[in-house]
Amino acid sequence: MIYLDHHAAAPMPLAVRQAMQDAADVAWANPSSTHAAGRASRKLLEEARESIAFVIGAAPADVVLTGGGTEACNLGARGVAAGCSRLVTSAVEHPAVAQSVERLRREGCEVVILDALRGNPPSAAELSSYLDPDTAVAIQWVNHETGTVFPIDEYASACQAIGARLFVDATQALGKLPIDVQALGADAVAIAAQKVGGPAGAGACWVRRDLDVAPVLDGGAQERGRRPGTPDTMSMVGFGAACETVGERVAAQPAIATMRDALEGRLLEQGAARNGEGPRVATVANLSLREWDGAVLVAALDLEGICVSTGAACSSGLQEPSAVIRAMYPDEQWRAGSAVRISLGIETSAEDIETTSRTFRRVLARETA
Amino acid sequence: MSDVKRVLVAMSGGVDSSVAAALLREAGHDLVGVTLHLWDADGEQQVGRCCAPEDRDDARRTCEHLGIPHYVLDERDAFRTQVVDPFVTDYQAGRTPIPCVSCNRTVKLTHLAEVARRFDATHIATGHYARLERADDGHLRLLRGRDDDKDQSYFLFGLPQSTLERLLFPLGELTKPEVREAGRRLGVPNADKPESPELCFVSDGKVGDFISRQGTPTTAGDIVDSSGTILGRHDGVANFTRGQRRGLGLGGGGARYVLRIVPDSAEVVVGDEQDLYDANLTATDAHWIAGRPVGAFQGEVRIRYRHRGAHADIIPSDSGFEVRFDEPQRAITPGQAAVVYRGDEVIGGGFIA
């Protein structure tokens, strides 16, 4: 099996599995308990928080541990939008942000959605034109489907200049781009373990210390009142261990880009169209094969031992045409239904790319009539 | 089946297709399970509706049990345009359509044949109760399933030889009790699941309500007798089919039956049961399994799924055929399929004009 779906989840390295296994002896205990068992769990939790904070240049106290990337995005988006009259976002956000924004809209907040046509992110100047001190921005750093890199530094400067608040969904940026939340100047930043080899269901939201965010769940006062519920020490140990691999992942980007470009080049020769023409990270190629239904192509490749995805939301096994590609190409609707996302990671080898390329050629050559 | 390599199994999540998959697996075939998502039920009852997430889950569980891959493909757009929209149009035109025929021909099997090629599968298997047999001249004969009560050959008359060549019907030789028994023996997770409704996308059977929900309300009008005398009102032509007695809301007098529906005036014409009998019918859009027969011939014609078939002369024309029954038949209904058999063999069929 060749795994090329790293944007969905990166394979869990042995060191992460080992760390979680080792933690199992004590991680079951409630880290809020004051007895010895609780303290042992708390110690692991706080060590994990330090690893997570370190990798994004944050102080551990400002990192809220959550049950995954979606919750971290909900917390961050709602957190920056609290009290604001207008919220600005993009048309290609992950549902974790897009649906938070939709809820805020229903609650009476004015919402401005900026286009990212053909994968070109909105400029900081365009963003600025909607900003005032009562405005919040909730936007991604790296698009989950096309890898499009948004000019977050410029957005942050624009927000700071006007006094608007900024939440950054950095879920797909972690492990691909260096992240330093202090230097960035955002107000909240969300990340998730799953994208860097940690367990699903472990996420974190960095929140600027003087920003008062309300929890999105109802419950106890854990995580300094920002996230109720018993913290999952075991998962967070996995997240912390996964963060130890982030430096290595970022350093591998040029090599990954070379492999991605090689594979993409071969597929473009076979008639594929590239989705997303703007700047992008090294790890992903999003391509549409006009004669194919993306879900059929993904299944046909799976039957040949190649794991890729359509990139789109999946509910009960049903894959719908990609909302992101649809928004990027409103005049070329065929692209959304025909899109496949091939995402590479640190484990990907040149041999994998060669095999994948040959398999694509064989599958795409199949006659349909 | 020596030429069978990889088989795509169409899995609805019901017992029949699950057992079909299990039997092929037992025979050692390389299988791929595919569930087509055709329709999102809306405003209908939540239990027993078609294409429900729990049906997809059942199909997935069966595939997990069998150790085969399972994929769900989204065919909602094709199902709406090629099956549901014509269904609604037909009802509004006073016909009683049989959507399973066109669904099998277009959305299901023709599309799956394309998917099968893309999956490098040589064959497609379904849970239909029907059989295929190679004739001496090389073409495939479509035969009734062994289980008289479950036989579904009626719905398959529209399939071209090119599709039949790729089909496998693992349940064709079995009865429903044998299928359930095989399901239990092979550990199929849903072996005791109840039957699905006859019209999969109208799970509560209320066609008029369904058509209203599609945003095209059915036309209300008068109930009249054959001489044009108004006997009452009805709330929509789509609520009626030829031969129907219930739901007319007419008090007094003897039993009256729907004789025909006049779409232009939205009139439902009623009369006595004896007026429902006709000895002839004309069918259009014919499809013949082994090509159009030359000249008239004798056979049995089924005029609806639950009709046992009646002996008749069949006279093919360019695009349809005429049927002259030996005995008049009750409620020959426009829109339903007239399927021509000789013994167990489906010769062809068309739609009653």
Description:
The complex is a heterodimer of chains A (369) and B (353). In chain A, 41% of the residues lie in helices and 15% in strands. Chain A has 369 residues and is an alpha/beta fold. Chain A has 2 domains: 125 residues, Alpha-Beta Complex (Aspartate Aminotransferase, domain 1), CATH 3.90.1150.10; 233 residues, Type I PLP-dependent aspartate aminotransferase-like (Major domain) (Aspartate Aminotransferase, domain 2, 3-Layer(aba) Sandwich), CATH 3.40.640. In chain A, the strands form 4 sheets. In chain A, strands 2-8-7-6-5-3-4 form a 7-stranded mixed β-sheet, with helices on both faces. In chain A, helix 2 packs parallel to helix 9, helix 3 runs parallel beside helix 4 and helix 11 runs parallel beside helix 15. The longest helix of chain A has 20 residues. In chain A, 53% of the residues are buried. Chain B folds into 3 domains: 180 residues, Rossmann fold; 53 residues, SH3 type barrels, CATH 2.30.30; 76 residues, Elongation Factor Tu (Ef-tu), domain 3 (Beta Barrel). Helix content of chain B is 24%, strand content 29%. Chain B contains 7 helices and 17 strands. In chain B, helix 3 packs antiparallel against helix 4. Chain B starts with 5 loop residues before the first strand and ends with a strand. The interface between A and B is medium-sized, with 21 and 21 residues.
Helices, strands, pairings?
The complex is a heterodimer of chains A (369) and B (353).
Chain A: E1 2-3, H1 14-27, H2 36-55, E2 63-66, H3 69-81, E3 86-90, H4 95-106, E4 110-114, H5 124-128, E5 135-140, H6 152-162, E6 165-169, H7 181-184, E7 188-192, E8 203-207, H8 222-225, H9 233-243, H10 246-251, H11 253-269, E9 273-274, E10 284-288, H12 294-303, E11 306-307, E12 314-315, E13 318-319, H13 323-328, H14 334-337, E14 339-343, H15 350-364
Parallel strand pairs in A: 1-11, 3-4, 3-5, 5-6, 6-7
Antiparallel strand pairs in A: 2-8, 7-8, 9-10, 10-14, 12-13
Chain B: E1 6-10, H1 15-26, E2 30-37, H2 53-66, E3 70-74, H3 76-92, H4 99-118, E4 123-125, E5 130-134, E6 140-144, H5 161-164, E7 167-168, H6 176-185, H7 207-213, E8 221-224, E9 230-234, E10 257-262, E11 267-271, E12 277-288, E13 297-302, E14 310-316, E15 321-330, E16 337-342, E17 345-352
Parallel strand pairs in B: 1-2, 1-4, 2-3, 4-7, 8-11
Antiparallel strand pairs in B: 5-6, 6-17, 8-9, 10-11, 12-15, 12-17, 13-14, 13-16, 14-15, 16-17
